[in-house]
Amino acid sequence: MTRVLEISPRHPYGATVTDDRHENGNSVASLVPTADAFIMGCALRAGYAWPFCKLQFHLGQAGKGVDFSQFDSVTFDMRYAGEAGRKIRLHMTNFEPEFSTVGDWNSQRYNSVEFDAPAQATFTIPVNVVRTADWWITAHDVPLEKTYTRLDNVTALEISTGSVPPGQSITIDVRSIEFRGKWISKTRLLTWLVGAWIGCGLLGLSLSLLHVRSSLSATNARLELLAAVNKALQLEARDLANQAHTDPLTGALNRQGLREVLMKRLHVAGHVDEEMAVVFMDLDHFKRINDQHGHDAGDEVLRRFAAVIRGEIRSSDKLVRWGGEEFLLLSPETDVPHAVSMLDKLRAALAKQEWPQGLRVTSSFGVTSLKPEEDIGAAIKRADGALYLAKANGRNRVEIA
Ligand SMILES: Nc1nc2c(ncn2[C@@H]2O[C@H](COP(=O)(O)OP(=O)(O)OP(=O)(O)O)[C@@H](O)[C@H]2O)c(=O)[nH]1
């Protein structure tokens, strides 16, 4: 993760020396390159206003320098020997087309720092102590917002004598200069990590949402299934309830069904508060039908008999199979004369009905009126008495109790 740029005899970057003589000074710099070091000797002499000797490393051509902006620190392995003062300057010249022109060395941004040469050979300084030199800012009339240090296109690095008195010999022995930096800056790494974290969070959130949605739809599907099962069970329960109240052969109510109807229509005590016709009916000579044509024919006669009656009565009337070939008919809000005329119509319908094996089927009827508040049992008994009379009087007739 660490990037390194090393300047040393192994990576010499065209090391040269220069001095202030071209500024009309008198200092004289010399270079002795060895296998381990660049040894700059400097006879620092008065003459130029700021006498100097410097060791230069040529990192690149104008416009093709080295980007030092990602380096954080620079470690020197160098030895300084002088007679008065121990100052060193580090210069880094940055070519910027806005200010710099090829061939004019001083037109490059002059970034610089001066520091005391430490006693120990190896030491490190942060790169951000390097600043654009004030004289360069002034000389190039640089606007304030562009006075910052820029190191993205460094063409040369220089180790120079610093502000020390002239008239002395100085030796600077440079073994290596090593710049170090991170390939990924802390800020960028942090940005990436935060981005990745947010991305993972969003991904996790999306996955959770998907999971919640799929479990919701699974729950809905289960609820729908339960609703369907519930409906089927309700239908089945209704069928069972109907079966419990209905005679399977004729579809008429059975006695349990009658009880339910009475529970609904009558008071629990067995009284009604309205007039109702109660009819007891019994097929004539039904035993003979069974005996002569068989039990199945008898069943079919019973089925058709109930069907004919149901076809003639109102929906509010209730037909009950009392037992065997006996039926009870409850006709609410009907007085006896109306009940008799309804029964006459019924007898006519039975006469017109086609019966199995060309049979002729008739029925006898006993009718009575259940008065408000009267006990239903008493009325049934009365109707049964009237039926007995109808049988006795020759059958296929209606008798009133
Ligand atoms: N096929 C069939 N016959 C039944 C059923 N329930 C009762 N029976 C028969 O119905 C007959 C009733 O005969 P009876 O009580 O003597 O009356 P009946 O022959 O109709 O004579 P009357 O009522 O006097 O006219 C008996 O033979 C019973 O076995 C049934 O569900 N199916």
UniProtKB/TrEMBL annotation:
Its EC number is 2.7.7.65. InterPro entries: Diguanylate_Cyclase (IPR050469), GGDEF_dom (IPR000160), Nucleotide_cyclase (IPR029787), Rev_trsase/Diguanyl_cyclase (IPR043128). Residues 274-401 form the GGDEF domain. It catalyses: 2 GTP = 3',3'-c-di-GMP + 2 diphosphate. Keywords: Membrane, Transmembrane, Transmembrane helix. The chain crosses the membrane at residues 189-210. SMART domains: GGDEF. It holds the Pfam family GGDEF. This is diguanylate cyclase. It comes from Telluria mixta.
